[in-house]
Specification:
The complex is a heterodimer of chains A (145) and B (235). With 145 residues, chain A is of the alpha+beta class. Chain A has four helices and eight strands; from the N terminus they run E-E-E-E-H-H-E-H-E-E-E-H. A four-stranded antiparallel beta sheet of chain A has the order 2-3-4-8. In chain A, strands 1-6 form a two-stranded antiparallel sheet. In chain A, strands 5-7 form a two-stranded parallel sheet. Chain A starts with a strand and ends in a 22-residue tail after the last helix. In chain B, helix 6 runs parallel beside helix 8. By secondary structure, chain B is of the alpha/beta class. Chain B contains eight helices and nine strands. Chain B is globular and about 50 Å long. Classes of the chains: A alpha+beta (145), B alpha/beta (235). The interface between A and B is medium-sized, with 32 and 34 residues.
Amino acid sequence: MSTHYKINRPKVISEVFEDEVVAVNFDTGSYYGLRNTALTIWNLLEKGASTEMLTSRMTSLYEGNAQAIGEGVSEFLTQLRTHDLIAEAPANGVNADSVAIADRLGPWDPPVLSVYEDMKELLLLDPIHDVDEQGWPARKPDQVV
Amino acid sequence: MMEPSSISVIIAVRNGEKYLLRALRSVKAQDPPPQEIVVVDGASTDGTRQIAESVAGVRVVTQTGRGIADAYNCGIASSTGDLVAFLSCDDEWTPDKLRVQAEYMEANPELLYTLTLAQSRLEDGHTAPAGFRMDLLERDHSGAMETLMARREVFEKVGPFDTRFQTAEDLDWFARAGDLNIPTACIQRVLLYKYVHDANLSLTTPTNNQSILTLLRQSIQRKNNPGRVNGDSSR
């Protein structure tokens, strides 16, 4: 069965700027830049796409060898999980094909996760804002998985 | 022996009557005392101004612009010390803060600014605001703006605080300084007590995440285009 993912909010925040997604992991103080194919994958992940959907959608959006695209997507998801930016989630009924993206986006380039750690100390001072409804102080930081 | 650097202390405050006196007392307790204490009043509607004026040696400057970044810039422009140190109206320095930090910077003339460690404390009778990291109450941690001591000339290199940010203006400044490889250090001694209460400005402003993402985006753009002029990126 294909795995579904979700962005690890609220400890991960992100925003799409014109050509790049910037994301912060407030548990580690690292921040990230995702462009091109990485940006497209992130946008689809935001909608709850599964591995299978991602691979098929990326294959239709980009010109390239289907197997290479599948491997590239899978490696990239592993990287996102390693950095704790995404987590497995129950299927949410989303059909990635329905997520509007311009037709052909060009040749396939393996997605790149640019990792920045130069603001760690200061970002770790910042509160996590977007707490869920239970909110603080119902849970302690070490319980945030 | 070289003449010791003169120090200006800047407290930017808007409606801080509740805690300002404690902060000012901690500045007055510095040994040796700073050459100058400037309180930048951001059009407070409470007793902030009266409290500041009641403390001998404090100069009150009325902020003409808006926002905390502008207040910092106003304080820098209104002061004359070789070294500029900032304190929040609700925080408190240890009595040796300025001396330890100034001596460190004298001994390390290549450093253009330094930070120190801080200890966060919960204000009496208050609960931590939503999202606050409780572990900060249990360990010494790096301080930010309220521990900053900067040589005046660093503001010519890095530029002023960006007034487009309503919050996280300090993070933006530190990111810009970092991208310029400005030499800095964090002194591994607790010289600030940071008080946490349920109305901390940066903790309650919903635009904070937005500010952080924007300033990090700008920092990434600077890293990708090292020649780029500060502050001209999309917002």
